[in-house]
Design goal:
This protein folds into four domains: 101 residues, Rossmann fold, CATH 3.40.50; 167 residues, ATP-grasp fold, B domain (D-amino Acid Aminotransferase, Chain A, domain 1, 2-Layer Sandwich); 69 residues, ATP-grasp fold, A domain (Dna Ligase, domain 1); 143 residues, Response regulator (Rossmann fold). By secondary structure, the chain is α/β, with parallel strands linked by helices. The strands form five sheets. Strands 15-14-11-12-13-16-17 form a seven-stranded mixed beta sheet. A four-stranded parallel beta sheet has the order 3-2-1-4. It is built from 18 helices and 21 strands. The model has no long low-confidence stretch (mean pLDDT 90).
């Protein structure tokens, strides 16, 4: 392989993205990466240069402008998006980016649909003989009000049909939620459905597997299965490789891949239910967290992808799959360490002993091994310690923060007043609507710190607000990152954390005051009485300040 091949990875991650960078670099490529957020993987010895061009969660247009400048100044043989967000950007700005570099891993819209839209995948799964979870597609809140949930038992899975979308020039990520009762489900639907349709699915007990493959023109070239041995909230920390024929899914998967004419890597995710039957869950049309497992199993998907889609080589199928186990030690340790804090010391020690014994096995590998990649491993734990220290420091600052002086800010020369809470769906929208009805001498607004906008208020918020003659039914959340804070004369916050976030965002102390000399806690997830008590406190304070 020519050592002058230069590859740019967009959207580096600590698992999938790093696996690609490692194996291309080992094969002689020069691998540069573009970060969305700072990750430990950029410190890997296999990464040549890393670029932070701004977070597209705040401004996609600006990110693409900076990416275009980079591509004009630096030559790359290919650009590979390695996350759902990166794929969405490359798809929406394909004309601009492809004029500067060859984009690999970007399928035609007709094929990309099945990776982007989880509901479309389930339809094609049914046509090809696969079992899918029982579910309902919710496109708006009216759909939810009309749907019949009697066929479901809680918990249920609430799954946005897309993992990443560009909305109002912001790259928004969506995650799956396990809802344990109707109130949790209603709140999640209200908060999310304005941005993306939601699949409500039955919860499937069992363990997860993935059919991982690389295909060209719809023909599967190589494949293997990974089985999740340890997972938490959909994230696997310990996985083993199995032949692609281990479960009775291969023929059906091959038909699906051919029907959608997929090009590149992909992973069809299944749950093995209590009857030992595979149930189709979703399709990931990009490199996945178990990419490093493919290398250890003898099917080097990053290298095969490079050979096929960058060098246009013909690759032959390898049916021999080594049975190996790969673990991501950092994540597994953090998961198991919870046992220490819950006084399950015996379980933690048992896991630790098993870990020490397993590392001497020939078929056992650690992804974040300090021997193979010391820069990444050290950075991973350094970031973790930094996160702990930051959390402790923030907590300490919050306790030491004096609230009283910040409740005595003068309203002289104040015109625009903005109420702030964390999500902008409970406290601040009520404060905004109540103050607006009370006093028209000011311009009121409300904001939150969650980047995803257009979220609706929870059901209990609507009911509680109604008791104070406040209507929140049409409220849609806004993010503080979408405005120029210099245009606001006064920010009114509910708690210490709101204050600290505003200060971190660059808002001067002189423009912030607390609504009360006592924190007004977030009622989110609480009972109707919690909301009523919270809104009464907000009403009393606003009456005192603006009445």
């Amino acid at each position: 392989m020519n050592d002058k091949h230069r590859i740019l990875l967009v959207g580096l991650t600590n698992k999938a993205g790093l696996a690609v960078a490692r194996n291309l670099s080992k094969s002689g490529c020069i691998v540069d990466v573009v970060l969305f957020t700072d990750v430990a993987a950029r410190h890997s010895r296999f990464v040549n240069k890393s670029y932070h061009l701004g977070n597209p969660a705040y401004n996609v247009d600006l990110f693409v402008i900076r990416l275009s400048e980079l591509l004009r100044n630096c030559f790359y043989d290919a650009l590979l998006p390695v996350t759902d967000g990166a794929l969405e950007i490359c798809r929406n700005y394909k004309k601009t980016i492809s004029s500067l570099v060859k984009i690999v891993g970007l399928n035609a819209d007709s094929a990309y649909l099945y990776s982007k839209d989880k509901s479309a995948l389930l339809d094609i799964g049914i046509r090809n003989g696969l079992t899918i979870p029982k579910g309902i597609l919710i496109r708006n809140f009216e759909d939810f009000n009309k749907c019949n949930l009697d066929a479901f038992e809680f918990p249920v899975i609430a799954k946005p049909v897309s993992s990443a979308l560009i909305i109002n020039n912001k790259l928004i990520g969506f995650s799956v939620r396990i809802c344990h009762n109707i109130n949790e489900l209603t709140d999640f639907i209200r908060e999310t459905v304005n941005c993306v349709p939601i699949l409500i699915q039955e919860y499937i007990e069992g363990y997860g597997i993935g059919y991982n493959f690389i295909s060209r023109d719809g023909i599967v070239l190589n494949a293997y299965i990974h089985r999740r041995l340890i997972e938490d909230k959909g994230v696997s920390t310990l996985r083993e490789s199995l032949p692609s024929t281990t479960y009775s899914i291969e023929n059906d998967v091959i038909k699906i891949v051919k029907e959608i004419n997929w090009n590149g890597v992909g992973m069809l995710e299944f749950k093995i239910d209590s009857n030992n039957q595979p149930v189709l869950m979703e399709f990931n049309g990009r490199f996945f967290g178990s990419a490093e497992l493919s290398v250890k199993a003898g099917i080097n998907l990053p290298l095969l992808f490079f050979d096929s889609f960058v060098l246009d080589k013909t690759i032959e199928r390898n049916i021999i799959v080594r049975n190996v186990v790969v673990r991501f030690l950092h994540d597994e340790f953090m998961l198991k360490a919870q046992g220490l804090f819950k006084l399950r010391i015996k379980d933690f020690i048992s896991w630790l002993v098993d870990l020490l014994l397993s590392v001497f096995s020939k078929n056992h590998y650690i992804e974040d091994s300090i021997i193979e990649d010391p820069g990444f491993s050290i950075a991973l734990w350094r970031y973790e310690i930094k996160r702990w220290c930051k959390g402790f420091n923030t907590s300490l600052r919050a306790k030491l923060l004096k609230i009283n002086p910040l409740t005595k800010c003068s309203l002289k020369n104040v015109n625009r007043v903005c109420f702030v809470c964390y999500g902008n769906i409970c406290r601040s929208p009520f404060a905004f609507e109540y103050a607006k009805n009370l006093n028209n001498n000011y311009t009121f607004d409300s904001l939150g710190f969650i980047e995803m906008e257009n979220r609706m208020s929870p059901a209990f918020a609507l009911l509680a607000a109604k008791e104070f003659n406040v209507d929140l039914t049409s409220h849609q959340s806004k993010s503080i990152y979408s405005i120029d804070t210099n245009e606001v004369d006064l920010f009114v916050v509910m708690d210490r954390m709101n204050y600290l976030k505003l200060r971190h965002h660059g808002v001067p102390e002189s423009k912030i005051r607390f609504l009360s000399n006592k924190e007004i806690k977030d009622p989110y997830g609480g009972t109707l009485d919690d909301y009523l008590m919270t809104y009464n406190k907000i009403k009393v304070e606003i009456d005192n300040i603006f009445g």
